[in-house]
Amino acid sequence: MAADEPTERQLRVMPWWLVLVGLLVAAALGWLVLDLLLTEADRASQPDTRATLRIDAIRTGLTVVAGTGGGLALLLAARRQWIAERAQRHQETVAARDQAHRDRVQAHAESVAEAAQRHQERQSGAAEHDAAERRLTELYTRAVELLGNDSAAVRLGGLHALERLGQDNPAQRPTIAAVLCAYLRMPAPNDEPRETEVRRTAQRVLTRHLRADDADHWPDVVLDLTGAALVDFDAAGCTLVDADFTRAVFTGTTSFAGTTARGRLALQSTVFGDVVFDGLRADGEVVLDGARVGGLADFEGAVFTDGLSCRRSSFAGPTSFRRATFGQPTSFDATRFEDVATFREAAFLGALSMEHTEFGGSASFRSVRFTNMALFRWTTFGGEALFDHARFTDAANFGRAWFHSVASFDDAQFSRPPQVDQARAAAGPGHRWPAGTVVERLDDEWLLLVDR
After folding, report:
1. pLDDT, tens digit, for every residue of 154-174?
2. Checking phi first, is residue 191 left (phi over 0); if not, alpha (psi -120 to 50) or beta?
3. For the chain, domain boundaries
4. Which of 20, 180, 252, 262 has its CA 20 to 30 A from that of 56?
5. What's the confidence (pLDDT) of residue 428?
Protein backbone atom coordinates (compact mmCIF):
# COMPACT_ATOMS: atom_id res chain seq x y z
CA MET A 1 0.00 0.00 0.00
CA ALA A 2 1.34 3.46 -0.89
CA ALA A 3 2.22 5.79 1.95
CA ASP A 4 -0.19 8.51 0.72
CA GLU A 5 -3.26 6.19 0.49
CA PRO A 6 -5.71 6.59 3.44
CA THR A 7 -6.33 3.58 5.67
CA GLU A 8 -10.06 2.63 5.74
CA ARG A 9 -11.64 1.52 9.01
CA GLN A 10 -12.98 -2.02 9.04
CA LEU A 11 -16.79 -2.22 8.56
CA ARG A 12 -18.49 -3.83 11.56
CA VAL A 13 -21.63 -6.01 11.01
CA MET A 14 -24.74 -4.87 12.94
CA PRO A 15 -25.81 -7.60 15.40
CA TRP A 16 -29.38 -8.95 15.17
CA TRP A 17 -30.21 -8.14 18.75
CA LEU A 18 -29.66 -4.44 18.11
CA VAL A 19 -32.75 -4.48 15.83
CA LEU A 20 -34.70 -6.34 18.51
CA VAL A 21 -33.65 -3.77 21.07
CA GLY A 22 -34.85 -1.01 18.76
CA LEU A 23 -38.25 -2.68 18.37
CA LEU A 24 -38.54 -3.18 22.11
CA VAL A 25 -37.57 0.47 22.69
CA ALA A 26 -40.27 1.56 20.19
CA ALA A 27 -42.86 -0.70 21.83
CA ALA A 28 -41.85 0.46 25.31
CA LEU A 29 -41.99 4.10 24.27
CA GLY A 30 -45.43 3.57 22.69
CA TRP A 31 -46.64 1.73 25.78
CA LEU A 32 -45.29 4.47 28.07
CA VAL A 33 -46.99 7.19 26.03
CA LEU A 34 -50.22 5.16 25.85
CA ASP A 35 -50.18 4.52 29.60
CA LEU A 36 -49.57 8.18 30.33
CA LEU A 37 -52.34 9.36 28.03
CA LEU A 38 -54.83 6.76 29.33
CA THR A 39 -54.09 7.83 32.86
CA GLU A 40 -54.81 11.43 31.94
CA ALA A 41 -58.00 10.36 30.09
CA ASP A 42 -59.30 8.46 33.12
CA ARG A 43 -59.11 11.62 35.17
CA ALA A 44 -61.75 13.27 33.00
CA SER A 45 -65.03 13.96 34.92
CA GLN A 46 -67.46 13.21 32.15
CA PRO A 47 -67.81 9.73 30.68
CA ASP A 48 -68.21 10.93 27.08
CA THR A 49 -65.10 12.99 27.30
CA ARG A 50 -63.21 10.15 28.98
CA ALA A 51 -64.08 7.75 26.11
CA THR A 52 -62.97 10.24 23.51
CA LEU A 53 -59.72 10.87 25.34
CA ARG A 54 -59.02 7.16 25.67
CA ILE A 55 -59.51 6.69 21.94
CA ASP A 56 -57.16 9.62 21.25
CA ALA A 57 -54.65 8.21 23.71
CA ILE A 58 -54.71 4.82 21.95
CA ARG A 59 -54.32 6.55 18.58
CA THR A 60 -51.47 8.67 19.84
CA GLY A 61 -49.71 5.66 21.38
CA LEU A 62 -49.98 3.75 18.14
CA THR A 63 -48.74 6.80 16.28
CA VAL A 64 -45.73 7.05 18.57
CA VAL A 65 -45.01 3.37 18.05
CA ALA A 66 -45.40 3.74 14.28
CA GLY A 67 -43.30 6.89 14.23
CA THR A 68 -40.57 5.29 16.31
CA GLY A 69 -40.62 2.24 14.05
CA GLY A 70 -40.54 4.48 11.01
CA GLY A 71 -37.57 6.37 12.45
CA LEU A 72 -35.79 3.10 13.07
CA ALA A 73 -36.63 1.98 9.54
CA LEU A 74 -35.30 5.30 8.19
CA LEU A 75 -32.09 4.86 10.15
CA LEU A 76 -31.72 1.33 8.79
CA ALA A 77 -32.35 2.58 5.26
CA ALA A 78 -29.79 5.40 5.73
CA ARG A 79 -27.25 2.89 7.04
CA ARG A 80 -27.91 0.64 4.11
CA GLN A 81 -27.41 3.57 1.71
CA TRP A 82 -24.19 4.55 3.51
CA ILE A 83 -22.96 0.98 3.33
CA ALA A 84 -23.80 0.82 -0.37
CA GLU A 85 -21.96 4.09 -1.04
CA ARG A 86 -19.01 2.93 1.02
CA ALA A 87 -18.98 -0.35 -0.87
CA GLN A 88 -19.04 1.59 -4.16
CA ARG A 89 -16.22 3.84 -2.99
CA HIS A 90 -14.28 0.80 -1.82
CA GLN A 91 -14.77 -0.88 -5.15
CA GLU A 92 -13.59 2.24 -6.94
CA THR A 93 -10.57 2.49 -4.63
CA VAL A 94 -9.75 -1.15 -5.16
CA ALA A 95 -10.19 -0.74 -8.92
CA ALA A 96 -7.91 2.32 -8.88
CA ARG A 97 -5.33 0.44 -6.82
CA ASP A 98 -5.56 -2.51 -9.18
CA GLN A 99 -5.14 -0.21 -12.18
CA ALA A 100 -2.19 1.56 -10.54
CA HIS A 101 -0.65 -1.80 -9.73
CA ARG A 102 -1.19 -2.97 -13.29
CA ASP A 103 0.37 0.28 -14.56
CA ARG A 104 3.37 -0.19 -12.27
CA VAL A 105 3.73 -3.78 -13.37
CA GLN A 106 3.45 -2.70 -17.01
CA ALA A 107 5.97 0.12 -16.52
CA HIS A 108 8.35 -2.25 -14.73
CA ALA A 109 7.97 -4.80 -17.49
CA GLU A 110 8.64 -2.12 -20.13
CA SER A 111 11.66 -0.86 -18.14
CA VAL A 112 13.01 -4.39 -17.84
CA ALA A 113 12.43 -4.97 -21.54
CA GLU A 114 14.11 -1.66 -22.43
CA ALA A 115 17.08 -2.44 -20.17
CA ALA A 116 17.33 -5.88 -21.72
CA GLN A 117 17.19 -4.31 -25.19
CA ARG A 118 19.94 -1.80 -24.30
CA HIS A 119 22.04 -4.59 -22.81
CA GLN A 120 21.54 -6.64 -25.93
CA GLU A 121 22.46 -3.66 -28.11
CA ARG A 122 25.57 -3.03 -26.00
CA GLN A 123 26.53 -6.67 -26.26
CA SER A 124 25.90 -6.58 -30.00
CA GLY A 125 27.89 -3.33 -30.34
CA ALA A 126 30.71 -4.73 -28.22
CA ALA A 127 30.74 -7.89 -30.29
CA GLU A 128 30.83 -5.86 -33.52
CA HIS A 129 33.57 -3.61 -32.10
CA ASP A 130 35.60 -6.62 -30.98
CA ALA A 131 35.16 -8.22 -34.38
CA ALA A 132 36.19 -4.99 -36.12
CA GLU A 133 39.20 -4.57 -33.81
CA ARG A 134 40.26 -8.17 -34.39
CA ARG A 135 39.92 -7.72 -38.12
CA LEU A 136 41.83 -4.42 -37.95
CA THR A 137 44.56 -5.98 -35.84
CA GLU A 138 44.86 -8.89 -38.24
CA LEU A 139 45.10 -6.55 -41.24
CA TYR A 140 47.63 -4.34 -39.47
CA THR A 141 49.72 -7.32 -38.33
CA ARG A 142 49.64 -8.82 -41.80
CA ALA A 143 50.68 -5.54 -43.44
CA VAL A 144 53.57 -5.08 -41.00
CA GLU A 145 54.68 -8.65 -41.62
CA LEU A 146 54.75 -7.90 -45.35
CA LEU A 147 57.15 -5.01 -44.69
CA GLY A 148 59.62 -7.50 -43.22
CA ASN A 149 59.55 -9.78 -46.23
CA ASP A 150 62.74 -10.36 -48.20
CA SER A 151 61.01 -9.61 -51.48
CA ALA A 152 60.82 -5.93 -52.48
CA ALA A 153 57.53 -6.54 -54.30
CA VAL A 154 55.97 -7.97 -51.14
CA ARG A 155 57.23 -5.00 -49.13
CA LEU A 156 55.61 -2.66 -51.64
CA GLY A 157 52.36 -4.56 -51.16
CA GLY A 158 52.71 -4.09 -47.40
CA LEU A 159 53.10 -0.32 -47.86
CA HIS A 160 49.96 -0.07 -49.96
CA ALA A 161 48.08 -2.28 -47.49
CA LEU A 162 49.03 0.08 -44.65
CA GLU A 163 47.98 3.08 -46.72
CA ARG A 164 44.59 1.52 -47.48
CA LEU A 165 44.19 0.67 -43.80
CA GLY A 166 44.86 4.29 -42.87
CA GLN A 167 42.37 5.59 -45.44
CA ASP A 168 39.61 3.38 -44.07
CA ASN A 169 40.48 3.88 -40.37
CA PRO A 170 41.35 7.50 -39.48
CA ALA A 171 42.15 6.58 -35.88
CA GLN A 172 45.01 4.36 -37.10
CA ARG A 173 46.71 7.02 -39.21
CA PRO A 174 49.16 8.25 -36.53
CA THR A 175 50.20 4.65 -35.84
CA ILE A 176 50.61 3.86 -39.53
CA ALA A 177 52.64 7.03 -40.06
CA ALA A 178 54.84 6.04 -37.12
CA VAL A 179 55.40 2.58 -38.68
CA LEU A 180 56.37 4.12 -42.03
CA CYS A 181 58.73 6.55 -40.29
CA ALA A 182 60.29 3.67 -38.35
CA TYR A 183 60.80 1.76 -41.60
CA LEU A 184 62.57 4.76 -43.14
CA ARG A 185 64.73 5.15 -40.03
CA MET A 186 66.06 1.62 -40.35
CA PRO A 187 69.42 1.27 -42.14
CA ALA A 188 69.05 0.63 -45.85
CA PRO A 189 71.24 -1.75 -47.88
CA ASN A 190 73.82 0.15 -49.85
CA ASP A 191 73.10 0.64 -53.57
CA GLU A 192 70.07 -1.64 -53.59
CA PRO A 193 67.76 -0.28 -56.33
CA ARG A 194 64.74 -2.32 -55.29
CA GLU A 195 65.00 -1.19 -51.66
CA THR A 196 65.43 2.40 -52.84
CA GLU A 197 62.15 2.12 -54.74
CA VAL A 198 60.44 0.71 -51.66
CA ARG A 199 61.70 3.65 -49.61
CA ARG A 200 60.61 6.14 -52.26
CA THR A 201 57.15 4.61 -52.11
CA ALA A 202 57.09 4.87 -48.29
CA GLN A 203 58.04 8.55 -48.61
CA ARG A 204 55.27 9.17 -51.15
CA VAL A 205 52.69 7.43 -48.97
CA LEU A 206 53.63 9.78 -46.12
CA THR A 207 53.79 13.02 -48.06
CA ARG A 208 50.81 12.33 -50.33
CA HIS A 209 48.39 12.43 -47.40
CA LEU A 210 50.01 15.46 -45.76
CA ARG A 211 48.96 17.78 -48.56
CA ALA A 212 45.91 19.88 -47.75
CA ASP A 213 44.58 19.55 -51.31
CA ASP A 214 44.66 15.75 -51.13
CA ALA A 215 41.23 14.11 -51.01
CA ASP A 216 42.48 11.69 -48.32
CA HIS A 217 44.30 14.29 -46.22
CA TRP A 218 45.64 12.98 -42.90
CA PRO A 219 45.70 15.97 -40.54
CA ASP A 220 47.91 16.34 -37.45
CA VAL A 221 50.21 13.42 -38.32
CA VAL A 222 53.63 13.84 -36.70
CA LEU A 223 56.73 12.76 -38.64
CA ASP A 224 59.71 11.44 -36.72
CA LEU A 225 62.40 10.77 -39.33
CA THR A 226 65.38 11.17 -37.04
CA GLY A 227 68.45 9.73 -38.76
CA ALA A 228 66.44 8.49 -41.75
CA ALA A 229 67.97 8.03 -45.21
CA LEU A 230 65.65 9.81 -47.67
CA VAL A 231 65.94 9.87 -51.45
CA ASP A 232 64.45 12.76 -53.48
CA PHE A 233 62.19 13.57 -50.54
CA ASP A 234 59.28 15.72 -51.78
CA ALA A 235 57.21 17.47 -49.09
CA ALA A 236 56.13 20.32 -51.36
CA GLY A 237 52.74 21.70 -50.30
CA CYS A 238 52.59 19.49 -47.21
CA THR A 239 51.55 20.49 -43.71
CA LEU A 240 54.16 19.30 -41.21
CA VAL A 241 53.34 19.21 -37.50
CA ASP A 242 56.33 19.12 -35.13
CA ALA A 243 58.36 17.28 -37.79
CA ASP A 244 61.76 15.97 -36.71
CA PHE A 245 64.44 15.32 -39.36
CA THR A 246 67.42 15.50 -36.99
CA ARG A 247 70.53 13.83 -38.50
CA ALA A 248 68.54 12.74 -41.56
CA VAL A 249 70.46 12.22 -44.81
CA PHE A 250 68.71 13.62 -47.91
CA THR A 251 70.14 12.49 -51.23
CA GLY A 252 69.08 13.84 -54.58
CA THR A 253 66.78 16.86 -54.68
CA THR A 254 64.78 17.62 -51.57
CA SER A 255 61.75 19.91 -51.74
CA PHE A 256 59.89 21.72 -48.98
CA ALA A 257 58.50 24.27 -51.45
CA GLY A 258 55.22 25.77 -50.26
CA THR A 259 55.31 23.65 -47.12
CA THR A 260 53.45 24.81 -44.00
CA ALA A 261 55.33 23.97 -40.81
CA ARG A 262 53.24 24.04 -37.64
CA GLY A 263 55.20 23.77 -34.45
CA ARG A 264 58.92 23.06 -34.44
CA LEU A 265 60.69 21.98 -37.62
CA ALA A 266 63.89 20.19 -36.57
CA LEU A 267 66.56 19.90 -39.28
CA GLN A 268 69.71 20.06 -37.20
CA SER A 269 72.71 18.02 -38.32
CA THR A 270 70.98 17.04 -41.56
CA VAL A 271 72.77 16.39 -44.85
CA PHE A 272 71.27 17.65 -48.12
CA GLY A 273 72.13 17.51 -51.78
CA ASP A 274 69.97 20.17 -53.44
CA VAL A 275 67.20 21.53 -51.23
CA VAL A 276 64.31 23.88 -51.98
CA PHE A 277 62.44 25.76 -49.23
CA ASP A 278 60.95 28.55 -51.37
CA GLY A 279 57.52 29.63 -50.14
CA LEU A 280 57.93 27.82 -46.80
CA ARG A 281 55.55 29.07 -44.08
CA ALA A 282 56.76 28.23 -40.58
CA ASP A 283 54.83 29.41 -37.52
CA GLY A 284 57.25 27.72 -35.10
CA GLU A 285 60.99 27.62 -34.71
CA VAL A 286 63.02 26.21 -37.62
CA VAL A 287 66.33 24.67 -36.55
CA LEU A 288 69.08 24.10 -39.13
CA ASP A 289 72.01 24.00 -36.73
CA GLY A 290 74.87 21.88 -38.05
CA ALA A 291 73.17 21.22 -41.39
CA ARG A 292 75.29 20.54 -44.47
CA VAL A 293 74.02 21.37 -47.96
CA GLY A 294 76.12 20.01 -50.78
CA GLY A 295 74.26 21.71 -53.63
CA LEU A 296 71.71 24.42 -54.26
CA ALA A 297 69.82 25.85 -51.27
CA ASP A 298 66.74 27.92 -52.13
CA PHE A 299 64.80 29.71 -49.35
CA GLU A 300 63.30 32.38 -51.57
CA GLY A 301 60.10 33.92 -50.15
CA ALA A 302 60.19 31.75 -47.02
CA VAL A 303 58.53 33.08 -43.86
CA PHE A 304 60.11 32.17 -40.53
CA THR A 305 57.58 33.58 -38.07
CA ASP A 306 59.43 32.33 -35.00
CA GLY A 307 62.89 32.87 -36.43
CA LEU A 308 65.58 30.61 -37.82
CA SER A 309 68.52 29.00 -36.07
CA CYS A 310 71.25 28.09 -38.58
CA ARG A 311 74.44 27.96 -36.53
CA ARG A 312 77.57 26.03 -37.55
CA SER A 313 76.00 24.99 -40.85
CA SER A 314 77.61 24.84 -44.28
CA PHE A 315 76.24 25.61 -47.76
CA ALA A 316 78.47 24.39 -50.60
CA GLY A 317 76.32 25.61 -53.49
CA PRO A 318 74.46 28.81 -54.35
CA THR A 319 72.20 29.88 -51.49
CA SER A 320 69.25 32.23 -51.72
CA PHE A 321 67.17 33.80 -48.96
CA ARG A 322 65.76 36.40 -51.32
CA ARG A 323 62.57 38.09 -50.03
CA ALA A 324 62.57 35.82 -46.98
CA THR A 325 60.99 37.14 -43.76
CA PHE A 326 62.43 36.43 -40.33
CA GLY A 327 59.97 37.29 -37.56
CA GLN A 328 62.07 36.55 -34.48
CA PRO A 329 65.82 36.59 -33.61
CA THR A 330 67.75 34.73 -36.28
CA SER A 331 71.25 33.32 -36.06
CA PHE A 332 73.75 32.26 -38.73
CA ASP A 333 76.69 32.20 -36.30
CA ALA A 334 79.73 30.20 -37.48
CA THR A 335 77.95 29.20 -40.70
CA ARG A 336 79.89 28.90 -43.96
CA PHE A 337 78.54 29.87 -47.39
CA GLU A 338 81.07 28.55 -49.92
CA ASP A 339 79.30 29.88 -53.01
CA VAL A 340 77.13 32.87 -53.80
CA ALA A 341 74.72 33.80 -51.00
CA THR A 342 71.93 36.33 -51.44
CA PHE A 343 69.55 37.83 -48.90
CA ARG A 344 68.28 40.46 -51.29
CA GLU A 345 65.01 42.19 -50.23
CA ALA A 346 64.79 40.02 -47.11
CA ALA A 347 63.26 41.41 -43.90
CA PHE A 348 64.77 40.73 -40.47
CA LEU A 349 62.04 41.75 -38.01
CA GLY A 350 64.04 40.39 -35.08
CA ALA A 351 67.70 40.59 -34.23
CA LEU A 352 70.23 39.07 -36.65
CA SER A 353 73.49 37.46 -35.61
CA MET A 354 76.11 36.46 -38.22
CA GLU A 355 79.13 36.38 -35.99
CA HIS A 356 82.07 34.26 -37.21
CA THR A 357 80.13 33.55 -40.41
CA GLU A 358 82.13 32.94 -43.60
CA PHE A 359 81.08 33.89 -47.13
CA GLY A 360 83.30 32.20 -49.71
CA GLY A 361 81.54 33.86 -52.66
CA SER A 362 79.71 37.13 -52.98
CA ALA A 363 77.21 38.05 -50.27
CA SER A 364 74.31 40.24 -51.31
CA PHE A 365 72.23 42.12 -48.77
CA ARG A 366 70.81 44.60 -51.25
CA SER A 367 67.57 46.30 -50.11
CA VAL A 368 67.46 44.21 -46.94
CA ARG A 369 65.48 45.65 -44.03
CA PHE A 370 67.03 45.24 -40.57
CA THR A 371 64.47 46.41 -38.00
CA ASN A 372 66.48 45.19 -35.02
CA MET A 373 70.12 44.78 -34.09
CA ALA A 374 72.35 43.30 -36.84
CA LEU A 375 75.64 41.69 -35.79
CA PHE A 376 78.34 40.92 -38.38
CA ARG A 377 81.27 40.78 -35.96
CA TRP A 378 84.19 38.57 -37.00
CA THR A 379 82.33 37.82 -40.26
CA THR A 380 84.50 36.95 -43.25
CA PHE A 381 83.37 38.16 -46.69
CA GLY A 382 85.46 36.24 -49.26
CA GLY A 383 83.66 37.81 -52.22
CA GLU A 384 81.75 41.02 -52.73
CA ALA A 385 79.80 42.27 -49.72
CA LEU A 386 76.86 44.24 -51.10
CA PHE A 387 74.67 46.23 -48.70
CA ASP A 388 73.37 48.72 -51.24
CA HIS A 389 70.01 50.32 -50.31
CA ALA A 390 69.86 48.33 -47.08
CA ARG A 391 68.06 49.92 -44.12
CA PHE A 392 69.33 49.53 -40.55
CA THR A 393 66.69 50.70 -38.08
CA ASP A 394 68.71 49.63 -35.05
CA ALA A 395 72.38 49.12 -34.28
CA ALA A 396 74.70 47.56 -36.86
CA ASN A 397 78.03 46.08 -35.83
CA PHE A 398 80.78 45.02 -38.29
CA GLY A 399 83.56 44.96 -35.71
CA ARG A 400 86.59 42.82 -36.68
CA ALA A 401 84.91 41.74 -39.91
CA TRP A 402 87.12 40.83 -42.93
CA PHE A 403 86.26 42.13 -46.42
CA HIS A 404 88.43 40.25 -48.95
CA SER A 405 86.76 41.90 -51.92
CA VAL A 406 84.65 44.94 -52.68
CA ALA A 407 82.41 46.19 -49.88
CA SER A 408 79.52 48.38 -50.99
CA PHE A 409 77.12 50.32 -48.77
CA ASP A 410 75.82 52.57 -51.53
CA ASP A 411 72.64 54.41 -50.39
CA ALA A 412 72.47 52.27 -47.24
CA GLN A 413 70.49 53.93 -44.44
CA PHE A 414 71.60 53.80 -40.81
CA SER A 415 69.63 55.09 -37.83
CA ARG A 416 72.96 55.43 -36.02
CA PRO A 417 76.57 55.16 -37.18
CA PRO A 418 77.58 51.51 -37.68
CA GLN A 419 80.33 50.05 -35.50
CA VAL A 420 83.28 48.94 -37.64
CA ASP A 421 86.10 48.97 -35.09
CA GLN A 422 89.07 46.80 -36.13
CA ALA A 423 87.36 45.63 -39.32
CA ARG A 424 89.75 44.95 -42.22
CA ALA A 425 89.25 45.31 -45.95
CA ALA A 426 91.40 44.39 -48.91
CA ALA A 427 93.16 47.42 -50.31
CA GLY A 428 91.89 48.45 -53.69
CA PRO A 429 89.33 50.58 -55.49
CA GLY A 430 85.57 50.04 -55.49
CA HIS A 431 84.76 50.19 -51.77
CA ARG A 432 81.79 52.36 -50.87
CA TRP A 433 81.69 52.74 -47.11
CA PRO A 434 78.96 54.26 -44.95
CA ALA A 435 79.25 58.00 -44.54
CA GLY A 436 81.73 59.00 -41.85
CA THR A 437 83.67 55.73 -41.85
CA VAL A 438 87.34 56.22 -40.98
CA VAL A 439 89.69 54.05 -43.08
CA GLU A 440 93.38 53.65 -42.33
CA ARG A 441 95.91 51.82 -44.47
CA LEU A 442 97.77 49.03 -42.69
CA ASP A 443 99.95 47.98 -45.61
CA ASP A 444 99.71 47.50 -49.35
CA GLU A 445 97.11 44.76 -48.97
CA TRP A 446 94.84 45.70 -46.07
CA LEU A 447 92.81 48.61 -44.81
CA LEU A 448 91.73 49.11 -41.19
CA LEU A 449 88.32 50.55 -40.31
CA VAL A 450 87.94 52.35 -37.03
CA ASP A 451 85.05 54.00 -35.24
CA ARG A 452 85.06 57.75 -35.02
Report:
1. 999 999 988 888 888 888 899
2. left
3. 17-114, 221-450
4. 20
5. 83
